[in-house]
Amino acid sequence: MTDRTWSHYINPTVKAIPPSGIRRFFDLAAEMEGVISLGVGEPDFVTPWHIREACIYSLHKGSTTYTSNHGLLELREEITKYLGTQGVQYNPRSEVLVTVGVSEALDLALRTLICPGDEVLIPTPCYVSYIPCTTLAGGVPVTIPTSMEDDFRLTADKLEAAITPKSKVLLLCFPNNPTGAIMNREELLKISEVVAKHDLLVISDEIYDRLTYIGQHTCFASLPGMRDRTIVLNGFSKAYAMTGWRLGYAAAQGDFIGAMTKIHQYTMLCAPITAQMSAMEALRHGKTPMENMVAHYNRRRRLMLQGFKEIGLPCFEPGGAFYVFPYIGDTGLTSAEFAEALLLEEKVAVIPGDVFGPGGEGCVRCSYASSVEDLTEALRRLGRFLKRRNIT
Ligand code: PLP
């Protein structure tokens, strides 16, 4: 190394990845007292007790080993049963891979599919990992901005317009982070026609599928002709309040899962056995506690929408996840300026929409995975902030 710094040795692709825009706000908020954070994309519930108990029991039994690279077969069977209820059948032995969160599944799916220069179509605003993970896999992210006028849904026309001969993958996320947008079956069917016409593959991140408040979630792989073109990603972090357990999965045609497993076996080996045991309990007996949490989120969603209406902040009605994405463009501030001023003046942390890619500027993401008391107080402070600026 002699007189050279580390920076000289670091892979330029890694060097070029910008730091997370969310991090900056967390760091700023962490230095202040009395902050109400609507910034975190994480359930405020503790994992239901019966799931924690299953974990304790598994440890008592001495389950402390590696598992099969694919994950415990019993867990894969529960996963395929669940996906069966979503209208798509998979073979638990060859078509499911248990991963360290959806995060690992996403990274594996991209690395398994992408050859240098392949284009990945990403409707935006999108989850913050999609663009950097695509770049790290050697792909070229092609963003497709959605807008409030379209309720942040992807339209077939917008998708068609973004396709080039290099397009290989469409990366979908409905219910969406950060907008809370959902897409119904008819709308997804139109997308699936474009996918088939252009011979695209789809990575469908359905981590928020249980958190749907309007209509029924449609699993993209359940649409005609889409099963063998789609890699479904899902996990336990959001539906079962299990973010810290780090467990997710991918389901797809067997050859593809086999290829993903090749990377997984050399990098992760397997997902943690305790988390796998606990996830089995979640799928077997977790429906009622999960539905209770979802009912709470739905009440808070309504509270936020009513609150925004009262203080005069335009907001489209999100049908899923636990985010609202109000429009703050009328304040004359950019979303970063708005978030910073709100934090410094009123100690409310929200995430500026621009960190989620094109189409996000002009809005801020507010998570309602917080107590009703905190949400009510945050709305009061937000109202005061707007009034002071003569905006409402
Ligand atoms: N996908 C989306 C859309 C998310 O919002 C998140 C977390 O916020 C993840 C994936 C990561 O999930 P996991 O905790 O399973 O890695």
From TrEMBL:
Residues 34-382 form the Aminotransferase class I/classII large domain. This is Aminotransferase. Belongs to the class-I pyridoxal-phosphate-dependent aminotransferase family. Its cofactor is pyridoxal 5'-phosphate. Pfam families: Aminotran_1_2 (PF00155). One of its GO terms (biological process) is amino acid metabolic process. Keywords: Aminotransferase, Pyridoxal phosphate, Transferase. One of its GO terms (molecular function) is pyridoxal phosphate binding. The lineage of its organism: Bacteria, Bacillati, Bacillota, Clostridia, Eubacteriales. Its EC number is 2.6.1.-. The keyword Transferase applies. It comes from the Bacteria.
